[in-house]
Amino acid sequence: MTHIRSTLMAALAAVGIFASAPASAQSSACMDGQKILLERQEIIKQVSTLTGGGKKKQIDPRAACTVFGKLVTNGDAGLKWMTTNKDWCQVPDQVLQNFEKDHKRAQTFKGQACGAAAKMAEMEKRAKQQAQQQQQQGGPRMGGGLTGTLSVPKGAL
User: Fold this and answer.
1) Distance separating the N- and C-terminal Cα atoms of the chain
2) Distance between CA atoms of 42 and 44, rounded to whole angstroms?
3) Would you put residue 149 in left (φ > 0), alpha (ψ -120 to 50) or beta?
4) The model's pTM
5) Dist CA 67 CA 47 (whole Å)
6) What is the mean pLDDT of the segment spanning 28-53?
7) Residue 90 phi/psi, 5° resolution?
8) Which end of the chain is more exposed for a tag (fewer CB within 10 A), N or C?
9) CA of 22: how far to CAs of 18, 26, 46, 139, in Å?
10) For residue 139, what pLDDT is reported?
11) pLDDT tens digits along 9-18
12) Residue 30 in contact with residue 18, Cβ under 8 Å?
């Protein structure tokens, strides 16, 4: 997690490089990169909140899958942007390399979180099915497989 933050800081430093260039020299493509990196910063804040900010906290795999999914989507866009605009927007090689490493790590985390979320969903589905089967079987049984119901004949005896 700390490596993601350090790389994020390097990426934001790169954003600072873009912002410090003369306004007339900035292209809209470089500004798009800033937007991607700022969005990534917000997603990293969500990851930090999800993990308890360094405290040992139980993480909900479904929430983690969602947040890491956003991070991977952002990383895909960021890598595409950096690769396309590296020279024009003066993205340092180190920033691109660190971004690629963090993107791969985010993909791994997403896979783990989404896998755990899928297992949870499957377990919940099975538990629900078992509860329904028990309900359909009529609850508590009397000896000999009887269901405990008795029909009374209607009419005169």
Assistant:
1) 80
2) 5
3) beta
4) 0.66
5) 7
6) 88
7) 55, 50
8) C
9) 9, 7, 33, 76
10) 55
11) 444 444 444 4
12) yes
User: Cβ(86)–Cβ(96) under 8 Å?
Assistant: yes
142 backbone dihedrals φ, ψ, rounded to 5°? -95, 165
Kindly list the domain boundaries of the chain, sorted by start residue: 2-123
**pLDDT tens, residue by residue, 55-112:** 677 888 999 999 999 999 999 999 999 999 888 888 899 999 999 999 999 999 999 9
Classify 142 as helix, strand or coil. Answer: strand
Dig out the tokens for 31 from the structure. Answer: 């500004």
Both tokens of 114, joined, read 């989404």
Which residue's structure tokens are 């990383």? Answer: 75
Quick one: tokens of 56?
């040992």
Quick one: tokens of 79?
């890598």
Of 52, 69, 155, residue with least CA distance to 106: 69
User: Is the sign of the CA dihedral 139, 145, 150, 153 positive or negative?
Assistant: positive
Average pLDDT over residues 118-138: 87
Residue 38 has pLDDT above 70, yes or no: yes
CA dihedral 82, 83, 89, 94 (to 10 degrees): 70
